[in-house]
From TrEMBL:
GO terms for molecular function: DNA binding. Residues 3-58 form the HTH deoR-type domain. Keywords: DNA-binding, Transcription, Transcription regulation. Pfam families: DeoRC (PF00455), HTH_DeoR (PF08220). The keyword Transcription applies. It comes from Mesorhizobium humile. Gene3D superfamilies: 3.40.50.1360, Winged helix-like DNA-binding domain superfamily/Winged helix DNA-binding domain (1.10.10.10). Coiled coil: none annotated. It comes from the Bacteria. InterPro entries: Carb_Metab_HTH_regulators, DeoR-like_C, DeoR_HTH, NagB/RpiA_transferase-like, Tscrpt_reg_HTH_DeoR_CS, WH-like_DNA-bd_sf, WH_DNA-bd_sf. This is DeoR/GlpR family DNA-binding transcription regulator.
């Protein structure tokens, strides 16, 4: 990742929470600790943030605390071709007239391109997903209520009496920060709380993750593997990871990229 992009992510992170640790920045940027410390030092000299012990804080502390994790704009550029292939397979599971929930995320967002010719009731907590479907499809779209988190382009509510409880779905489609033997993992307690409510409204949970997510971990578990009906991923999945899903009784769909998507991936690399 280029220095300019790392600086943008770091500055965005310190505006989202009071203090961001060096380790959190390492995970957000996939960079080394030494690189992050140099970036913090440079941004401190430029008076764009304030260096503190073990991390950094904003010059003007944020008035509104955001969610942990990379911004949507950063995540959507990572493994883009794989995400599009995964999303295509997800939409292949859908039937016109069948209600579905699409949780906000950069992989689930790619589903909108393949839903343009469908007619389905769709519930989502994502502004980008809702906006694209309203402009480019005849699907019936319902948005959740709550607080808008700009960096992740998602709407979340901690309250039980929101519209979520009034929508039934045949399937819910969602991504995750990580996927391992203990189940589906996320990086923020509010995400866990809001997504558990959505999961309760669906018969089946379909997880869309590129293969890198099998090697990522978080301290927060959203649900166990037993709650997941299907995992859709790319051909980078390792045999032991596929075996883990098989043992847990989770169906596995491996998305194969089309030639145009392979060319897109090689250009990004």
């Amino acid at each position: 990742m280029h220095e300019k992009e790392r600086h943008r992510i770091i500055l965005s992170a310190v505006q989202e929470k009071p203090v961001v640790t060096v380790q959190e920045m390492v995970e957000l940027t996939d960079s080394s600790e030494a690189t992050i410390r140099r970036d913090i030092a440079a941004l401190h000299v430029q008076k764009r943030l304030r260096r503190v012990r073990g991390g950094a804080e904003a010059i003007s502390p944020p008035q509104f605390i955001g969610l942990a994790g990379r911004p949507f704009s950063v995540n959507e550029t990572l493994n883009a071709a794989q995400k599009r292939a995964i999303a295509r397979e997800a939409v292949n599971l859908c039937t016109d007239g069948e209600p579905i929930i699409i949780n906000g995320g950069t992989t689930t967002f790619q589903m909108v391109h393949f839903l343009t010719g469908r007619r389905m009731p769709i519930f989502t907590n994502s502004f980008p997903i809702a906006e694209h479907l309203l402009k480019h499809s005849k699907n019936t779209v319902m948005l959740s209520g709550g607080t808008i988190y700009r960096e992740q382009n998602i709407i979340l509510s901690p309250f039980d009496n929101d519209v979520t409880r009034n929508f039934y779905a045949r399937r819910m489609f969602m991504g995750a920060q990580g996927l391992g033997p203990l189940g589906l993992m996320e990086g923020d307690p509010l995400l866990i709380q809001a997504e558990q409510k959505l999961i309760d409204q669906a018969d089946e949970l379909v997880v869309l993750v590129d293969s890198s997510k099998f090697r990522m971990r978080s301290s927060l578990i959203l649900c166990g593997l037993s709650r997941i009906a299907t995992v859709i991923t790319d051909d980078g999945i390792e045999d032991r990871e596929a075996k883990m899903l098989e043992t847990a009784g989770v169906a596995l769909i491996v998305a194969r990229r089309q030639s145009s998507e392979k060319e897109e991936s090689s250009l990004q690399a």
